[in-house]
């Protein structure tokens, strides 16, 4: 019995090393699973953020462009206007192209509850001048209060902004780039035969817009790679840009709006 007891004093060095190796392998496996799950979670969160921002961008742009050209009396021609810096509207124009990433819109208020793209309500005097919503009556000659605003891309802050009066306000952030294309026909103000990135010679009857959304997540969201995302490749191919970020998550959203009272 004494000899047996002497042989049972503990683990040998080899047994201890084997146990440590097995433990390390288990810890390494669990760590890799954790890192992979965390990366997947962050990737999904970034995609959801892009999708949410993208939907909001489309909602904002379509909302403001759908208002462009509204007037209570279809027989009335929208007068020329240059009250907002950089926005020089010729007679009858609802939309003015400033550049491929900025435009101006003007429209008459529809009701007392109308707000600008910044969410600002009409002045009290303007509200009082609207006696019958959505109608030129009772006095067809009454000129409704007009709203003029500029929608533009702020490359420094990666955001879409709205300028109304002397105030410039950020509407959407997380935008890598924004492009407008203007549809027109030089011979027919109510037709679209081509889209251009610059101000067309004819009346702008439609606006096509594309936004490149960028996630604001950690650069470790994507696997280490030297290749850019497919959305970024698509954007570079469309617009001749040279974005080469290999870490961020990108998504393209786009839409087209026919300008009110310009198309037949």
UniProtKB/TrEMBL annotation:
Transmembrane segments: 12-35
InterPro entries membership: N_methyl_site, PilW
Biological process annotations from GO: type IV pilus assembly
Pfam families xrefs: N_methyl, PilW
Keywords in alphabetical order: Membrane, Transmembrane, Transmembrane helix
Top-level lineage group: Bacteria
Full protein name: Type IV pilus assembly protein PilW
UniProt source species: Pseudomonas graminis
């Amino acid at each position: 019995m004494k000899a047996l007891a002497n042989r049972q004093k503990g683990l040998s060095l080899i047994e201890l090393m084997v146990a440590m190796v097995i433990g390390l392998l288990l810890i390494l496996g669990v760590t890799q699973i954790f890192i992979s799950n965390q990366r997947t979670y962050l990737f999904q969160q970034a995609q959801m953020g892009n999708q949410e921002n993208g939907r909001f961008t489309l909602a904002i742009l379509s909302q403001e462009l759908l208002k462009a050209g509204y007037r209570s009396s279809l027989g009335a021609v929208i007068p020329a206007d240059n009250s907002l810096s950089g926005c020089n509207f010729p007679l009858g124009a609802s939309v003015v192209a400033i550049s491929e990433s900025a435009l101006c819109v003007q429209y008459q208020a529809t009701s007392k509850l109308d707000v600008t793209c910044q969410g600002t309500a009409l002045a009290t005097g303007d509200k009082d001048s609207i006696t019958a919503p959505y109608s030129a009556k009772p006095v067809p000659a009454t000129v409704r209060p007009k709203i003029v605003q500029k929608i533009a891309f702020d490359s420094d802050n990666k955001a879409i902004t709205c300028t109304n009066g002397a105030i410039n306000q950020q509407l959407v952030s997380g935008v890598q780039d924004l492009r407008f294309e203007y549809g027109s026909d030089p011979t027919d103000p109510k037709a679209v035969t081509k889209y251009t990135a610059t101000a067309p010679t004819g009346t702008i009857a439609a606006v096509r817009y594309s936004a490149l959304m960028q996630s604001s997540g950690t650069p470790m969201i994507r696997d280490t790679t030297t290749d850019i995302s497919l959305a970024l490749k698509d954007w570079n191919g469309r617009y001749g840009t040279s974005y080469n970020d290999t870490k961020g998550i990108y998504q393209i959203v786009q839409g087209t709006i026919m300008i009110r009272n310009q198309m037949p």
